């Protein structure tokens, strides 16, 4: 928990390096108008997920301090793990009490849209000023195509993270562009004693990212355009057969991996290829341990390989929700506006080296994406993001299926051999149909 006032802001910003601030980027309409007067005596409480990148929380709290210094509104920030934010948000929605603002994941907002403040005015202002929102943001937080029930924060991009020297030793110049080539690489890495590994536990970010990718890459999907559950399909079975072969190359223990697990395994040199955000690279670059710091030069990133079903990308989408029970909805809107403006958002992206990719088009021009070529693969995470409820309409059902880890469990069951690919697909079909009731 943190409370930040003006004197703390002055203290925290005094030592900022001269080159930290980004130049003002191009905007579509710098004259976009915002009129809002926060309630007198307002105080806000924000619940957000715990940091994976120290620069994220450091700069976020500096921005919070700047908001307090400018408006006089005190802001308390609480941090929880990815997995703990969702149930706490659900409790807040059901009881009508809790944080004023919650930073959630994916389409959690669609579990209780009637409990959230309409932020259409704020979304329109930001979209007009910063070149427009990417479609994924609208899909998740504008489900009816009209009203916005939250403000997109961005997405924690998920890419292939690998050791260049190990990949070259296995006979490859980088991550192959297709799934066949990628399987060959993973087998070669395993044979060399430098295996890879991907989370198969209930890891909100990492497991969902690669499990959705592997199913989509072979043409499988949870639902069709009419929201009919179609996960039990020949395409899904092919994907699960591939996942089973891939699993045979993994380091032991991935069935229980949560989001921090592959970070630790990679930095401990237990794996040489995994999927993750840019947090592994950040940790190596900033580590005081010479052994870990030395890894930074050997780490690189790549987009996921393309499968027979085409290219597909899933990234952990992050939203910002204001709950209707708040006493200070105008102050809450003002806080989100302030945090999304270039002066704050741009520096936040730079401090976390792009751990959260932007949801507004104008931020493509932020220098963080070109200062280091290893950052670039993460730039288009939101731009290319396919929502978890693909190929249907997002809502309560898609949010429920995602929260229940149905896709992850299916891949884990088939990959580990606890069920055949067909049995795993059949079970996923039945589980999903409980949510997608006609």
Question: Which consecutive residue ranges, at least 5 long each, have pLDDT under 50?
Answer: 1-27
**What is the CATH third-level topology name of the largest domain?**
D-Maltodextrin-Binding Protein, domain 2
Number of strands: 10
Q: Whole-number average pLDDT?
A: 92
The CATH homologous superfamily name of the largest domain equals Periplasmic binding protein-like II
What is the structural class?
alpha+beta
State the end-to-end CA separation: 43 Å
- Estimate percent helicity: 40-55%
CATH class of the largest domain: Alpha Beta
Principal-axes shape call: globular
Tell me the number of structural domains.
2
- Element-by-element helix/strand order: EHEHEHEHHEEHHHHHEHHEEHHEHHHH
Give the amount of beta strand, in percent.
Answer: 5-15%
Number of helices: 18
At CATH level 2, the architecture of the largest domain is 3-Layer(aba) Sandwich
Q: Major beta sheet, specifics?
A: 7 strands, mixed
Radius of gyration: 21 Å
Read across the widest sheet, the strand sequence of neighbours is 1-3-2-4-9-5-10
